[in-house]
Amino acid sequence: MYAASQPAVQSFQPSDSATGASIPGPHLVATYKPGREIYAEGDAVEKCYQVTTGAVRIYRLLSDGRRQVVSFHLAGEMFGFEAGARHRFFAEAITETRLAVFGRRPMQEYSRELLALALAGLARAQEHLLVIGRQCAVERIAAFLLDISYRQGDVRQLKLPMSRQDIADYLGLTIETVSRVMTRLKERGLIGLRDARTVDITKPDALRSLCS
Fold it and tell me: What is the pTM of this model?
């Protein structure tokens, strides 16, 4: 699962509709199968990436073997920025994922655009710390669903690319707790569950009030 892959690569020129806030310049698109590694902890920081389709999880393996997911990246979002010369986390495709791949040196020409994207990622990370640090399990799940809804375009029907184990590792919960909370929210009429990966937000204001 953690072995490095050789993705399929082709030339690509993205449109704004395909990638969101894309950055001009020559680059490639790489396609990764579900579960394939994009980069590993300790790899040199030579590229950054923008998700065109699919989803990516960023995680670290703890000394006791547990996994801590630190972020998810969805279509249009960029990742791979690091302060140092080496990656401190693993990046892995969740579903079949297409990435626009940018070389680090050409990207330095677009420092303003990169700063805006990096600050957006920082804001998401700070909000995530607040969720983990202060909220109970119900509040964490509610905040997570609202965040995914916002990032998918304020939709009421969520297509979750990540598994419940991914969500548990992201929110600092067990998979049993995630499943139990999802069922509780369904019983209260706040969400509907079509299947494990499809969630209907039926009462967004009530869901929002749980994590206000």
Answer: 0.81
Helix, strand or coil for residue 193? strand
Q: How is residue 118 annotated by DSSP?
A: H
Query: Tokens at residue 146, please?
Result: 């609202």
Lowest mean per-residue pLDDT among 111-115, 122-126, 148-152, 202-206: 111-115
Winning range, highest mean pLDDT, from 34-38, 82-86, 128-132: 34-38
Q: 59: which strand partners?
A: 69, 90
The conformation of residue 4, written as its DSSP 8-state character, comes to: B
DSSP 6-63: --EEEE----HHHHSS---S--EEEEE-TT-EEE-TT-B--EEEEEEES-EEEEEE-T
Q: What backbone phi and psi angles, to 5 degrees, belong to 198? A: -120, 115
Q: Quote the Cα angle for 193-196-202, to 5°.
A: 25
Cα(201)–Cα(185) distance, integer angstroms: 10
Which residues fall within 8 angstroms of residue 110, CB to CB, at 6 or more apart? 23, 24, 25
Extract the runs of DSSP E, i.e. beta strands, from the chain.
8-11, 28-32, 37-39, 47-53, 56-61, 67-73, 78-79, 90-93, 97-103, 157-159, 191-195, 198-201
Distance (Å, whole) CA 173 – CA 2? 22
